[in-house]
Amino acid sequence: MSEFELIDRIISEVNRVKPGDWPSLLSGIGDDTALIKFKGKYQLATVDCLVEDVHFKKEFLDWTSLGWKALAVNLSDIAAMGGKPKYALVSLALPSDVDTDNVVKLYRGMLELARESGTVIAGGNISRAAQLGVHVTVIGEAESKSKTLLRSKAKKGDLIAVTGRLGGAAAGLQALQGAFRPGKFDTDELTRAFWRPQPRLDVGQLLVKHGVKCAIDISDGLLADLGHILKASKVGAKVEVARIPVHPSAASSSEVDALEAALNGGEDYELLFTGKREIIEKVAADACCPVTVIGEIVRGTGKIELLDTLGCPLSVDPAGWRHF
């Protein structure tokens, strides 16, 4: 069973039981965060983890950057809903031989981003474990359900756009794993793309301001995450490969398949969103980062058609990240 087949099974079981105050849950499993209405306010809740030998290796571990990234991946989910972060809970799974100074470094990295984003580290837990794991839950807020970005709101005729540059994190992971010959290529920018993603909180709120309805953050890979939107919205997509904004440091290295990294590499934590042309033009004019139109929403549930510079179909496997 694949990761997403398992998620579908979990959704089916949760929907069958529906425990607790179910009516207060406005959007649950299937979006970047849960959306909850509580006493007239709208809360966002998300949780994610970084686990040794799954998301990083001990041999290239940077404790301070691990703390930054553990919070960043959750803040990116809040950004993808157009919300604002408020509080974070941190649960650490630590090997028995861990150096406490390294744990302090982890928190320093997390607090650096918490200070930038206005997030309060409100509590957490520590447990002994065979391998290092950092689990973070973030609570945020949204203005209303109608002013929340959902995966299910893409419409035929919408343009598809992305923020920033793609493929840097995947290339950075290759650099950390020793894929580049020593001295052949300056890897600092790429390894920073892997370890220090910048959650697009300001842009997420800008999308809401200008009337965008549909977004997701790029964690599993451009094609995989676009596929999540297409499935939820019951539409298809045409994507012009030449328009995809590939990270320049990845593109300039002969040792990286930069297009593959941009399409399927994942962990860029940029925003992928859809909207009418005039809306996207307003977002691009106001955004603090590049915004690039890469395609269009069309008919055909779940189908992605990739086109080359001549408009001819390309065959690319939408692999993306899978846990199982």
Q: In angstroms, what is the radius of gyration?
A: 19 Å
- H-E order: HEEEHEHEEEHHHEHEHHEHEEE
Biggest sheet record: 7 strands, mixed
The helix tally amounts to: 10
Give your account of this protein's structure.
The structure is a single chain. With 324 residues, this protein is α+β, with helices and mostly antiparallel strands. It contains ten helices and 13 strands. The strands form two sheets. Strands 8-10-7-11-9-12-13 form a seven-stranded mixed sheet, with helices on both faces. The chain has a six-stranded mixed sheet with strand order 1-2-3-6-4-5. Helix 2 runs parallel beside helix 6 (201-209) and helix 4 (168-176) packs across helix 5. The longest helix has 18 residues, at 63-80. The chain starts with a helix and ends in a 10-residue tail after the last strand.
Task: Jot down its keywords.
single chain, 324 residues, alpha+beta, 13 strands, 34% helix
Question: Helices and strands in order, then pairings?
Answer:
Blueprint lengths: L2 H15 L7 E3 L6 E5 L2 E11 L11 H18 L3 E11 L5 H18 L2 E9 L4 E10 L16 E5 L4 H9 L11 H8 L5 H9 L4 E4 L4 H12 L2 E5 L7 H4 L6 H8 L5 E5 L1 H10 L4 E8 L5 E4 L5 E2 L10
Parallel strand pairs: 4-5, 9-12
Antiparallel strand pairs: 1-2, 2-3, 3-6, 4-6, 7-10, 7-11, 8-10, 9-11, 12-13
Helix pairs in contact: 2-3, 2-6, 4-5, 4-9
Task: Please give a quick description of this structure.
Helices cover 34% and strands 25% of the residues. The chain is built from ten helices and 13 strands.
